[in-house]
Each structure stands twice: as C-alpha cells, then as structure tokens.
Amino acid sequence: MIRTLKGVRNALRRFASKAGPPPEIDLKVNPSETIAGRPSHKRMTAPIAPKGFDPEAFFKGITWYQKWEVFDGIFTPGINPVSDICDLMQLPADLSGRRILDIGSANGCMSLECERRGAAEVIGLTPLDGLDWGHRQLRDAVGATRTHFRLGPVYDLNPDVLGYFDTVLFCGVLYHLRYPMLAIDNIRRVATNEVFIETHLSDEGLGEINKEIPLWRFYRLNELNSDDSNWFGPNIAAVQQAFESAGFSTKLLNSSGGRGRFHAVVRDGMPEFLNIRCQEANSYDVLLDRLFGRKETWRRPTN
C-alpha cells in the first residue's frame, strides 16, 4: 500500500496529484485475480551512471515517494516501486510511437519510465511543480528529451490545449479527488485508446452482495490513513462502472492489499452518458458546454 508523505497533504487536498495512502506497499497478487493470457513485461535496463554522479547529493532536499532506477543500481529513495507497479498494471515494455499522459506525475518517475520504454512524447501533468519534487532535475539527469511536465489539474483536460493521447496513466490519483466523475469524464475528452488505472479500493469488509453494487465510500476528513487528502474510496464495481459510463470498456486486471489495477479502452462513438436520456445529454449546451466544449468533440474516433 502507498503512503502519503508528510508535508504534501494540504497541497494534495487542494489539487489532484499522485500519491497513495496506505502505510505499506503490498505488491503480491493472487494468480487467480490476474487476467489470463496477458504476457509478462520485461523490465527495461537503466543506463550506467555518468562519471561523477553523486546520488546522495542529487537526492537531497527532494520529497521522494516514487522508487525508480535512475541509473544502473541507483534508485530514487521513494517507497512506491514504479517498475513493480508497471508490471501489475501490465504496461507494455514497448511504448514506441505513443503519446502518453501521466496524470499526477509527482516525481516524474512514471513519465520518464514511459520515455525509456520508447514513447514518442510524454506529458506529466502535476499540480505540484516545485523544485522539491525533483521531476525536472531527474529529467535533466537522465537526458530525457521527450518528457514534458505541465502544471495543471485533471479537472480541465482540454484537447484543444493538450491534444489527444494514445495512452493515459491514472495511478494513485482517483481516491484523492473530491470530484472523481468530473476527472474521469475529462480523461475521456483526451483519450483515444487506453487508460491504465491504479487506485485504492474499498471492497475490504464488504459482503459479496455489496461488492457487486458500485459504492463510493466518502472520507469527510482523514478517516483513510489519517490523511486529509483522501476523499473517496471506490469499490471495484464503482471504478468499472464509472469508466463505462464515461465511454470506456473496462476490465479489472488484478487487486491486492486494498488496491486495484484496471485497463480501460475507449469505445467508438459518444460516451454512454451522452447516449441516454439524462439531463446532461438533453441539455448539454446549458449544463456542460462551458465545462467541456462542443458536444461533438466527445466522438471517437477523432478523425
């Protein structure tokens, strides 16, 4: 399970960022929980450190919570292992040619891992852009040229500003959001293919019948791990049905230790919620045009 570091809770409460609340990471997965037939992905090899690189000096003064192999045998001193998370999400080892959005990029490790796997361009979206997060220093240290960090919220993913993305990473963010459906709908605005989701889940303690009902547990204060930045704990059914409503086909990949990994694929045409007799669809110009722009921009494919 993923911990939220001291000193960032107030910022995370105000913004959508990538963090993880639970006190320890549990990366063990029951084989029966994993979708059969998906290939395992080999880990990419980190380059040799340049002569004179001083890890202790480089890492000092930065709030690290992502653990990533910067150079061969040299890892950022975080607590969330990016490589293991990528394996559990079944992120392809080869991302060649893809344009990728990493929502809540934080230290930038996941973004840089995508470039290392061959992505054509990576946009790391973060509400926390200070030097104490280290993402820009890390990018410069590894010589990344196709990863760009942008200050901004998940609540306003405008395709006219950001463009469209083949792959979206939505890891450790959902339960920090006060407006989760607004975020998921915004992801659909800019996604053209797939979304990889990693999140806290609230299924533990639910009876089997309740697990089939989509439920969002609300944390008014700091009920989840004494962390004020956590707002909602969805169960598995809630994650799946929320993304389905937004216009995705969604599958649970695996779950363990109160966390889950999902894979969502954009459906052709309009999102489900714009194809039913709801007020958002019937009165789109009045209710949603200011938020999302023209209704037709939701249609997939985009050309």
> If you consult CATH, what is the topology of the domain at 9-31 and 81-267?
Rossmann fold
User: Compute the gyration radius: what is it?
Assistant: 19 Å
Q: Helix share of residues?
A: 25-40%
CATH class of the domain at 9-31 and 81-267, named Alpha Beta
Order of helices and strands: HHEEEEHEHEHEHEHEHEEHEEHHH
Distance between the termini: 41 Å
The CATH superfamily name of the domain at 9-31 and 81-267 is Vaccinia Virus protein VP39
Q: What portion of the residues fall into strands of 2 or more residues? A: 15-25%
Explain this structure to me?
The protein is an alpha/beta fold. The protein has a domain at 9-31 and 81-267: 3-Layer(aba) Sandwich (Rossmann fold), CATH 3.40.50. Helices cover 25% and strands 21% of the residues. The protein has helices spanning 9-14, 55-59, 82-89, 109-116, 135-142, 159-162, 180-190, 208-211, 236-245, 279-282, 284-287, 289-292, and strands at 66-67, 69-71, 74-75, 80-81, 99-103, 121-126, 147-151, 165-171, 191-200, 216-218, 232-234, 248-256, 259-266. The strands form 4 sheets. The chain has a 7-stranded mixed β-sheet, with helices on both faces. It has a two-stranded parallel sheet with strand order 1-4. The chain starts with 8 loop residues before the first helix and ends in an 11-residue tail after the last helix.
